[in-house]
User: Fold these one by one.
Assistant:
Number 1:
Amino acid sequence: MKLPIRQSRLHIRKTRPKYIVIHQTTCQYPAPDAKIDSPKFQVPALIGNVLEKKQADINYHFIIDKIKDDYQIITCKPFVTICEFPDISNDINDAAFHVAVMGSYDFKIPEIRLYEILAYRLLNPLLKAFHIIPTRIYLHYEVSDNKEETCPGSFFNKGKMISMIKRFIITK
Ligand SMILES: [Zn+2]
């Protein structure tokens, strides 16, 4: 199953990116084949949910998915466009990159390697290229109007993520 490319339905961002919001993919896509991250490439499992919701594209800019033995960063929605989250205020959402970890971390503890790849290949380069300060990285539930929101999962540890960001900081 392939998603049609409907660029005209995407909203181009007009604000300089200042925030990064971290999610788990089950916050929008409950596809059973992608509920727990596995060595399979699972992004295609989300496509049925994207079509059901009549979204113009996968509603995250990037997903980190474990494929065979290691984690890989996958680009989903073009990052010059805005992801649509009705529970996140426009001030933050219109200036955010949305990054999702595959699966649900309400059930599983993220591996250290997930935090390493996330920081090294994606978060640190975004911080550096767009001059974003690490205190502007939020977990979805921290910026949600919905008090019940747990995304990116109760086992996702922000402290570990921040320590990996410090470890792979790009100074030059
Ligand atoms: Zn989320």
Number 2:
Amino acid sequence: MDRTRRVAVFGVFALVALVGAACVPLQNAPSGGGAVIEQTFRYGPFTLGPGGDATGSPAAGMPRPTGAFGLQYAKFDVVDENNVPFSVHDVHLHHVVMTTSARQDVLCPGRAERFIGSGMERTPITLGSPYTYLVGANDQWGSTYHLMNETAPGTPAKTVYIRYTLRYQPGATAQNSRPVTPLFMDVTGCGGSEFDVPGTGGPGSVHTKSATWTAPASGIAVFAAGHLHNGGIDITLKNETTGQVGCIGTATYHENPRHLASIPACVMHHQVTAGNRYSVTSRYDNSAPVDGAMGIYLTYAWQGTQ
Ligand SMILES: [Cu+2]
């Protein structure tokens, strides 16, 4: 850890960005977890020569704040030894997803819960009080990560860290907040997350991949962030029972060289109904092959009744 500071209480800022007809009003809200602390952590270093990559899945050992708290925000980056972020054209964060020993993944029982993550899109995960992700004092954090150095052959090796900035409420409890459950909605289901786009469809063609789940409990979905790799067009979260679209993340790109730049996330307050069917659909450009593509929505829902 290299930085700690106290930031303002964010209040119910999430509610100013409500979108869509499926919104429900916030009612009977608890007071929330109080003051927010911001802290930045680094994991590494990795020494990566040109074309080199680093992958790992440690079950524990990712640095985290001490004590129990409610997590409100997470943003990932890749930086050098001086904390300077790399250009996305030089060192590429395929993805990092954090796992916890505390719970099993709701949609993939038997696996550790995957609760925050990011990729090239670098979307910050943002929960608005009273919604929070509760972390126990003794929960171990692990991860799955993949980093790649894409600098030209012959250039010097780089020292690379995964850096993440967290905002959290030490005072958050299940009584003063609404604890959210992360739903790792992967178009490969509970597979290895990667699939190949054949790239054989010709100019303008689209490769589509979907998965569908039945909501195990009713509640309110409050945030959804999509993850795609280069070649991704968009990713959609939809209630198939009602036909309502919950979130569409359309990828934007840097050019020369072309690299995925962003996938806007959705701050929402949408009713989730037990037994309804929910789908995630990723779309990729099918005019060029993509090996190891991904399509994931990390969605946070409170399982409760207002
Ligand atoms: Cu990925």
